[in-house]
Amino acid sequence: MSITGSILVFEQELKPLTQPWQNAERPGQAAYLPPSALHQKLKTVFPDKKVLSIWYSGHE
User: Fold this and answer.
1) 9: pLDDT confidence band, cut at 50, 70 and 90?
2) CB pairs under 8 A, 24+ apart, for 29-35?
3) 8-39: buried (b, 16+ CB within 10 Å) or exposed (e) per residue?
4) Rounded distance, CA 55 to CA 57, Å?
5) Measured at the alpha carbon of residue 35, what is the angle toward residues 32 and 38, in degrees to the nearest 5?
6) CA pair distance 29, 21, nearest whole angstrom
7) What is the mean pLDDT of the chain?
8) Which of 9, 38, 45, 58 can bridge 33 by disulfide, Cβ–Cβ 3.0-4.6 Å?
């Protein structure tokens, strides 16, 4: 197995280590926003940026 393959397998686990600004934690017992609502809020705050993905890590 190559090192590139290993990195890709654990991509989501490694991102917080290399890109901590992309993570947000849910405050207290607040409900999760649906992806559509979160996307709309992001477009409002960052109108010149493009949202490529939204991940709900640990949400069951």
Assistant:
1) confident
2) 32/56, 32/59
3) eeeeeeeeeeeeeeeeeeeeeeeeeeeeeeee
4) 6
5) 75
6) 22
7) 78
8) 38
